[in-house]
Design a protein that fits this description.
- By secondary structure, the protein is of the alpha+beta class.
- The protein has three domains: about 180 residues, FAD/NAD(P)-binding domain; about 180 residues, D-Amino Acid Oxidase, subunit A, domain 2 (D-Amino Acid Oxidase, Chain A, domain 2); about 130 residues, Alpha-glycerophosphate oxidase, cap domain (Helicase, Ruva Protein, domain 3), CATH 1.10.8.870.
- Strands 3, 4, 5, 6, 11, 12, 13, 14, 15 and 16 form a ten-stranded mixed sheet that branches. Strands 1, 2, 7, 8, 9, 10, 17 and 18 form an eight-stranded mixed sheet that branches.
- α2 packs across α9 and α13 crosses α16.
- The protein is globular, with a radius of gyration of 23 Å.
């Protein structure tokens, strides 16, 4: 794929588009792809980097939603399974089946967040099996992926750190897992291949009208300070947690969003030995938490609490981290503590509001709303349902435009999904180690060839950017040339994921990543210092949970 010049993308955007998408997370990327494949001229802008908000801070699950069945959200579960099935087929390099173990212990009162009367507690294993049977039926899974009972011997072999004392049963079911950022970039790359224009660090600050209709958006380029007016026949607000704020640029929005905080911690490799994921069987307040393998580490999440703080910089708090560690330790043989945490972060979920409901009980369904001026807002939803949300938004556009433009994304393979065997052979022929090869293929699919090409062109780029990390310098070059990475903070947190996985590894990689970006983007020393300062400030925010009293005093 040819290099993506941000400057060229900005010039193309200012020429005007049919559909302007505001928001470069997974939902906005999905809308851009659907619109582009329907033949519209598409532009997409994001106020920060692509996938910089909730789409980089999820629990990495592509799932039907086992917790939604007892809540009665059957339609949401069906929809989730349809989309999961599609993604497993259309992006097999990014979305993979994953086994989840549910251990059930004596004395459990609210398994998976469902409060069970005392008289019915002896029937919990049977009831849970019935629920998993329904989950299998909704998913229409092949026999190998149906739920099953796990023997004590198999449990001790696959999850040796899980406490066996008091365990009544262990059940296994299957869902999907994906790297949310790489999935977003695959959708964006596919949209660009169909003619979409994408520009990051470009914020919509106002709308322009012709009569009663919104016909343009004023876009501020946050890198240059210039403001551009972008004419558009249709404008889609897909900004997630900022949905109300963007809609209010026109008038008071007709929808309301409740923000929910979901914090996660990443643990040292090997501190919890588990090849499958583990469901924390019970929490004090009925939330659902998991230990999920991600980036070679165990990741523990998530919290689900109402959030009224700064949307620009959500952080995991000391209480969030303590909550997750304390609940995991109830079911582990070896206790884990703050020193085992290599990174912690929080994501904010945009939930369609309902009066009087806790965020844990709000549906993850979505709503498409059209303002009086014609701005189309798609709000709510979850990572799994992004394609369906985009299809619903495009249905509104096509209906308002007249004519028929059938959706194509249900059968369209995402960038990196084609010719995987040939790509694997090319990567295997490189000088990279086995871990690096696996990492590249799982992150980029067949586009790993492009990364390897950068490494072959400049041999120093085939070296890991930090000891023990599979990330190589060529990935940074690829992010700059093909994915519009323009800041050090974006490269460290969102493109390489170094800072999101391991603070120490990120610190060790900082010099190498800075040098590669400085050469690729021709930064002078003043710009290098500015980029380093901005990254250090972001990294410091991510560490606040470790010393909350000092942070509060400093603030």
């Amino acid at each position: 794929m040819s290099a993506v010049s941000r400057g060229e993308q900005v010039r193309a955007l200012t020429a005007g588009v049919d559909v302007l998408v505001i928001g470069g997370g997974i939902t906005g990327a999905g809308v851009a792809l659907d619109a582009a494949t329907c033949g519209y001229r598409v532009g997409l802008v994001d106020q920060a980097d692509f996938a910089g908000g909730t789409s980089s801070r999820s629990t990495k699950l592509v799932h039907g939603g086992i917790r939604y069945l007892p809540q009665g959200h059957v339609g949401l579960v069906r929809q989730g399974f349809r989309e999961r099935s599609r993604l497993l087929r259309l992006a097999p390099h990014l979305v993979r089946p994953l086994a989840f173990i549910i251990p059930l212990y004596a004395g459990v009162r609210r398994p998976l967040g469902v409060r069970v009367p005392r008289v019915a507690r002896p029937l919990i294993p049977l009831g849970l099996r019935a629920g998993l049977l329904a989950y299998d039926l909704f998913a229409r899974v092949e026999p190998a992926l149906r739920h099953r009972v796990m023997s004590r011997a198999a449990l001790e072999r696959e999850v040796p750190d899980l406490r066996a004392e008091g365990m009544r049963a262990a059940l296994v079911y299957y869902d999907g897992v994906a790297d949310d950022v790489r999935l977003t970039h695959a959708v964006l790359a596919t949209a660009r291949a169909h003619g979409a224009v994408t520009v990051n660090h470009a914020a919509v600050v106002a709308f322009a009208r012709s009569g009663d209709r919104v016909t343009a958006a004023r876009v501020e380029d946050r890198l240059t300070g210039r403001t551009h007016e972008v004419a558009a026949r249709f404008i889609v607000n897909a900004t997630g947690i900022w949905g109300e704020r963007v809609a209010a640029l026109e008038r008071e929005p007709s929808f309301r969003i409740t923000h929910s905080n979901g914090s996660h911690v990443v643990l040292r490799a090997g501190v919890v030995r588990a090849s499958p994921a583990v469901v924390i069987p019970e929490t004090d307040d009925g939330r659902l938490a998991f230990i999920v393998p991600w980036a070679g580490r165990p990741m523990l999440g998530t919290t689900d609490t109402r959030y009224d703080g700064d949307l620009e910089a959500p952080d995991a708090t000391e209480s969030d981290v303590s909550y997750l560690l304390d609940h995991a330790n109830r079911y582990l043989n070896r206790p884990i503590g703050p020193d085992d945490v290599t990174a912690a972060w929080a994501g904010i979920r945009p939930l369609v509001a309902a009066a009087g409901a806790s965020t844990a009980c709000l549906s993850r369904d979505h709503v498409v709303s059209v303002s009086a001026g014609g701005v189309i807002s798609v709000v709510g939803g979850k990572l799994t349902s992004y394609r369906h949300m985009a299809e619903d938004a495009l249905d509104v556009i096509v209906a308002r435009d007249g004519g028929v433009r059938p959706c194509r994304t249900a059968e369209l393979a995402l960038a990196g999904a084609e010719h995987l065997a040939a790509a694997a052979a090319d990567v295997a022929a490189s000088s990279l180690g086995a871990d690096q090869q696996t990492h590249l293929l799982e992150a980029y699919g067949s586009r790993a060839r492009e990364v390897v090409a950068h490494a072959r062109a400049e041999r120093s780029l085939d070296a890991p950017v930090a000891p023990g990390s599979p990330v190589i310098g060529a990935e940074v070059v690829h992010a700059v040339r093909s994915e519009q990475a323009v800041t050090l903070t974006d490269a460290m947190f969102l493109r390489t994921r170094l800072a999101a996985v391991d603070e120490a590894s990120a610190a060790a990689a900082l010099e190498a990543v800075t040098g590669i970006m400085a050469r690729a983007l021709e930064w002078d020393q003043a710009e290098v210092r500015r980029q380093r300062d901005a990254y250090e400030a972001a990294a410091e925010r991510g560490r606040r949970w470790r010393y909350p009293r000092v942070s509060a005093a400093a603030g």
